Amino acid sequence: MNKNAANKIIRAYLKERFNFFVIKKRLSDFAFTFNIFGDGRDYIIKLIEKKNVVSNIIHDKKHVNKVVSAILSLKDNNILSVNIIDYYLSKEYSIVLLEKEKLSKIKGVKKEDFKIISRAILGFHSACKNISFKLLPWDNFPQHFKEALKNNNRLDLVNSFIRESAKYIDRKNLVSCHNDIHAGNIYYSKEKVIFLDLDDMCKSSYFNDLGMLLANFMDSSYSNTDLFEAISNILKGYNLKMSKNNILNISIFSLRKLYFTEAYFLYVNKKNAQLPRFVYEIRRREKIIINFMESYL
């Protein structure tokens, strides 16, 4: 869906709900998420396409209904998320109207913060235990991501990792995962962790979310000791043992997330002559985790 079509749909929805509204600004480069002002209050509105370029997850009515149920379940279990004001489901897209809250970004994550966020993820998984989403395959790379990797001579590396790591990954401890744990989707509110953007929830090992936590909040200057401490805090926060298998799974799921993120940035910047600087940051993190696994495991 292009920008003009999305704006037309959103405006039609807002005209039905508000006497007066203003679309203030777009909040995402790739998603149709906007800050709006309607009848004296600020809101966030999201248009969720059935299919998008970021994942293979199908955001149909059934899926979005489950996401809404998950948000309500979080609230019932005292886990912070956004408050849903209204939502509309159609065959090809959904619209969700959310309360706009004052939030603080998580910046400069210290290694001990991993334990706090991991404990919050445990609460998230527990609250959503009765909601069943579709299983996320281990090879979850969209075809256009693979083409972007191929064009940058990275596909063989990623395919080899997916193939070799498949024999080690946890397939028993399946939960309803957030599946998009990064600094743009986790905030502090009243000294508690708040989870945003549950659109891509799925069924997977709890290591899926824990690996994302490591991948997206680690520092590219980490030594093996630093990485070990971060992983240790993640496992402690989730009440898991410091076993070799658990350390291996966090590392493997984290590396998959980094390869996936690299593929995304290669895809969205495919027309640019130079790679974005963040790709080099991602690759530094990949090397740190690979070196850690080779040295420790």
What would you note in describing this structure?
- This protein has 297 residues and is α+β, with helices and mostly antiparallel strands.
- The chain has nine helices and eleven strands.
- It has helices at residues 3-17, 61-76, 113-127, 143-151, 155-165, 206-217, 224-237, 244-268, 277-296; strands at residues 21-26, 32-38, 41-49, 80-81, 84-89, 93-99, 104-105, 174-177, 186-189, 192-195, 202-205.
- The strands form three sheets. Strands 1-2-3-6-5 form a five-stranded antiparallel beta sheet, with helices on both faces. A four-stranded mixed beta sheet has the order 4-10-9-7.
- The model has no long low-confidence stretch (mean pLDDT 92).
Structure summarized in a few sentences:
The chain is α+β, with helices and mostly antiparallel strands. It has two domains: 97 residues, 2-Layer Sandwich (Phosphorylase Kinase, domain 1), CATH 3.30.200; 193 residues, Aminoglycoside phosphotransferase (APH), C-terminal lobe (Aminoglycoside 3'-phosphotransferase, Chain: A, domain 2), CATH 3.90.1200.
